[in-house]
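Moderator note: this is an archived Q&A kept for reference. The question asked for a predicted structure of one protein chain; the sequence and the answer are reproduced below.
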Amino acid sequence: MPNVIGERAKVTAFVIRRCVDRGPLADLSANPDGTLHHPGQVAEICARKDVADLVAAGAPLGPEQAAARLGVRRADLRPLD
């Protein structure tokens, strides 16, 4: 369900920009100062359960975050004896 005036936003402008950059949402505007999106596409983005993962995918990560995303345990290197 899209955002409703007077309620907490379900999808922010940041999420919309990330979705345009990542591909699942098309920018229909040629105006560099604004965007125009198909309402049906926006509704689909708002309804996705994995929208947080979609936005986070491709974001630069630190070593601990990268290890957690990859599902590996980070080990510090130590010299061989």
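Archived answer notes: Residues 13-22 form the longest helix (10 residues).
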